[in-house]
Amino acid sequence: MSRTGRRALFKALVLDQVDGKTVAEVKQLEVGDLPKQETLIAVEYSSLNYKDGMAVTGTGKIIREFPMVPGIDLAGKIIESDSDKYQPGDSVILTGWGVGERYWGGYTQQASAKADWLVPMPEGLDSRKAMIIGTAGFTAMLCVMTLEEAGVTPGQGPVLVTGAAGGVGSIAVMLLSTLGYEVAAVTGRESTHEYLRGLGASQILSREEMSAQSRPLESQRWAGAVDTVGGDILARVIAEMNYGGAVAACGLASSFKLNTTVMPFILRNVSLRGADSVSCPVERRTRAWERLASDLPESAYTTISRTVGLDQVLEVSQEIMAGQVRGRVLIDPNL
């Protein structure tokens, strides 16, 4: 059976709750087991994101209804479609919209999805490349676009990336460097320094330094920033922004809380802007994926990924929650 054709039976990672604990198991399903949506997709690849790690390990309350197939993104080919937007054989990408949280996601060989959730595969990408980029790369591109829209240019000074060794951070470092920005990277692991320099970071800062409590205003250091962690680090980043600088915030790996003052905003004209990958409009999604296809160097697909099957998802999910994952992890449900 072709990996892109309809299967009578197919594998999926299914999450259930047993005695209040999340249990992950690879199961055989039928098409009739899938929630009914407009399209049936042969999933070629998915990826591992921090939110996926939380869902699979039962950390927090990512999943509220069980059973659930996790995986917040996927790429593959349309098998069947009730929508005139897509035809069988079309290559598509799916990220966000609550997939893998409220709706069954990408850790499966076949998935169903609303046509409005999908983005056509841009020229220059295929399913494997798209999921090496994945939700993390898509989010990183949204952050870069947000800084550009705020007027942050390469000539204005260095741009800081927090959580730089993670999925979003890794691709943000590479994108910004490729676009001509001077990039400074924050990481809590000395073992990632060489890796980050290889992605284009010219300066490495420790998590400890950037986590130290900041004054309302610190010395100006950054023209822009991509923040993936929140909390005390984000507070210090804001206090260290140059006049007119902008921060694109997209994550809360450290904390969802932000203890800061209005002083950077009213005395330095700093802006704090959100970058949302879940409910982002289709037009902006499409533009972001087109930019990724054109702006990411080919090395992005060889230097920041490894590939695992469904039976290894629990193990790598535990690793990402322990802060042991560097860069991107590709999920191949057909292994």
Topology:
Layout: E1 9-18, E2 21-30, E3 39-48, H1 50-57, E4 73-81, E5 91-95, E6 110-113, E7 118-120, H2 127-149, E8 159-161, H3 167-178, E9 183-187, H4 193-199, E10 201-206, H5 207-211, E11 222-227, H6 231-239, E12 241-249, H7 263-267, E13 271-274, H8 282-295, H9 300-303, E14 305-308, H10 313-321, E15 328-331
Parallel strand pairs: 8-9, 8-11, 9-10, 11-12, 12-13, 14-15
Antiparallel strand pairs: 1-2, 3-4, 3-6, 3-15, 4-5, 5-7
Features:
335 residues; Rossmann fold; alpha/beta; globular; Quinone Oxidoreductase, Chain A, domain 1; seven-stranded mixed β-sheet; 2 domains
Largest sheet: 7 strands, mixed
Can you identify the CATH class of the largest domain? Answer: Alpha Beta
- Summed up, the helix count is 10
Task: State the CATH topology of the largest domain.
Answer: Quinone Oxidoreductase, Chain A, domain 1
CATH superfamily annotation of the largest domain: Medium-chain alcohol dehydrogenases, catalytic domain
- E-strand count: 15
Radius of gyration: 20 Å
Percent helix = 25-40%
Mean pLDDT: 94
Low-confidence stretches: none
Question: What's the order of the H and E elements?
Answer: EEEHEEEEHEHEHEHEHEHEHHEHE
Distance between the termini: 13 Å
In percent terms, what proportion of residues is strand? 25-35%
Q: Overall 3D geometry? A: globular
Number of domains: 2
Computed structural class: alpha/beta
Q: Architecture of the largest domain, CATH level 2?
A: Alpha-Beta Complex
